[in-house]
From TrEMBL:
InterPro entries: MmgE/PrpD_sf, MmgE/PrpD_sf_1, MmgE/PrpD_sf_2, MmgE_PrpD, MmgE_PrpD_C, MmgE_PrpD_N. This is MmgE/PrpD family protein. It comes from the Bacteria. SUPFAM superfamilies: 2-methylcitrate dehydratase PrpD (SSF103378). Residues 14-251 form the MmgE/PrpD N-terminal domain. Signal peptide: none annotated.
């Protein structure tokens, strides 16, 4: 059931008040550091994703929207700048095209892939400083994750794709802060963003998933721009009988979760999970467990009789392709993720291709990998600490059995990657996107708070 606010204010009121009142100096240095890491990771996967077919489609549509307007906003993979809303759409699509972007368990949402493109586009549109871009990204992240926490994961479990539903809220919050909208305009913008939100998990494994991320970024930017010009939005967008809580979330919405904005920081807890490999996060813990068993026990792949993965229901729901036929299906396949990782020691962007899917060694391994949900996942306590965990058992042909439980994957907030690993991923992504200016862009991102103009963030050559 919906939990009423403690002071009779609406969810929009709480969000707008915090957005308008936040000053950059109020953000702890630890939160800024996490945000920089998220931006480095997101721009990296965005640049790699710009080389994908779906990102090219999004750029073509964005170019049509921009028309003859030159714009001031970077679009990765394009030879020209574009207007803010078009750039947010194209870059948001690219950021999620490879499913290599981060995740937050406050709402089970891909946050940065939507918020970062929106914030970058608006920051370049108004020529904001790097400090303002960083703050706006934090504002968008905290607002989106607070709403995610208030939703108590019902959205995702019901079948909505949280990135499409919550993404416009985060993108709008970031844009509203950058545009310095007043209290009334910010509330209107948020109302517009909530009223227009949507996204179905039916799109998983298709172009729709990446395009929905781009659309969410664009929707947030458009909502803020419309409010800037006087448009109004529903003040009770969450609580209305035809609003967010009832229609999207089975009537559940704990508005008091929003009171923690600025007191507790979602970027710190529950934190952000950065992907080590470019497939759905639901497979990562099992992949890590399988690799650990292989490395620690020294058996060969030819000796394996079977691999079984006992996983929670969300993993079963997400990884629906036992015999994937396309790159997008492979990214939602436990069998593919484990088979490639065992064969090559890791799973990289270079493995997401038709050749790998037709490799007889890959096919053979996939056929002996089983995934099921055991009775242990009936425990709410276990689900709380291991929402996408895995119990992996590898049985050899000689009957020997090896077992490993992993509550969280490498790269998650519970087991984070090192700075060196983050930067290595970033540079690999830039190489995949055929850019040679990785060290310059990386240095600019690390020094973002000192950058005078966001238009100088991305080197012009090879944009």
């Amino acid at each position: 059931m919906s939990i009423p606010p403690s002071d009779n204010t609406t969810a929009i009121d709480k969000l707008a008040d915090w957005i308008v009142g936040l000053q950059p100096e109020q953000v702890p240095a630890s939160v800024q550091h996490i945000a920089i890491t998220c931006l480095i990771d997101t721009l990296g996967v965005m640049i790699a994703g710009a080389a994908s077919r779906v990102a090219a489609i999004a750029r073509a549509a964005a170019a049509d929207e921009s028309g003859s307007n030159s714009g001031t906003c970077t679009v990765f993979g394009a030879s020209r700048y574009m207007v803010a809303s078009a750039a947010a759409f194209a870059n948001g699509t690219a950021a999620h095209a490879l499913d290599f972007d981060d995740n937050c368990y406050a709402g089970f949402v891909h946050g940065s892939a939507v918020i970062a493109p929106a914030a970058l586009a608006v920051a370049q549109h108004i020529d904001a400083s790097g400090r303002d871009l960083l703050t706006a990204f934090i504002v968008g992240s905290e607002c989106e994750y607070a709403v995610g926490a208030a939703s108590r994961s019902v959205l995702y479990e019901t079948g909505w794709w949280t990135t499409g539903v919550l993404g416009p809220i985060g993108a709008c919050a970031a844009a509203a802060w950058l545009l310095r909208l007043n209290r009334m305009q910010t509330a209107a913008a948020l109302g517009l963003a909530v009223a227009a939100a949507g996204g179905l998990k039916a799109g998983f494994g298709t172009d729709a998933k990446a395009l929905m991320a781009g659309r969410a970024a664009q929707a947030g930017v458009n909502a803020a721009m419309l409010a800037r010009h006087g448009a109004t939005g529903p003040a009770h967008a969450f609580e209305h009988h035809n609003g967010f809580a009832r229609l999207f979330n089975q009537g559940v919405f704990d508005v008091n979760k929003l009171d923690r904005l600025g007191r507790e920081w979602s970027l710190e807890s529950p934190g952000v999970d950065i992907k080590r490999i470019p497939v759905c996060l639901s497979s990562h813990a099992a992949v890590d467990a399988a690799l650990e068993l292989l490395h620690e026990n020294g058996f060969s792949l030819d000796e394996i009789a079977s691999i079984t993965c006992d996983v929670p229901p969300i993993v079963i729901a997400n990884l629906v392709y036992q015999q994937p036929a396309t790159r997008q299906e492979a990214q939602f396949s436990m069998q593919f993720a484990i088979a490639i990782s065992l064969l090559y020691g890791t799973l990289g962007l270079e493995h997401l291709n038709p050749t790998a899917l037709k490799d007889e060694r890959v096919i053979g391994l996939m056929q002996i990998i089983d995934m099921h949900q055991g009775a242990q996942w009936e425990s709410r306590e276990l689900l709380a600490i291991a929402p996408e965990g895995a119990q992996v058992v590898i049985t050899l042909k000689n009957g020997r059995r090896y077992e490993r439980f992993r509550a969280a994957a490498r790269g998650t907030a519970a087991d984070p990657l090192s700075r060196e690993e983050i930067e290595e991923k970033f540079l690999r992504c830039l190489a995949a996107g055929e850019r040679q200016d990785g060290p310059i862009l990386l240095a600019n991102l690390h020094a973002l708070s000192m950058l005078a103009s966001c238009r100088a963030l991305v080197p012009a050559r090879g944009r």
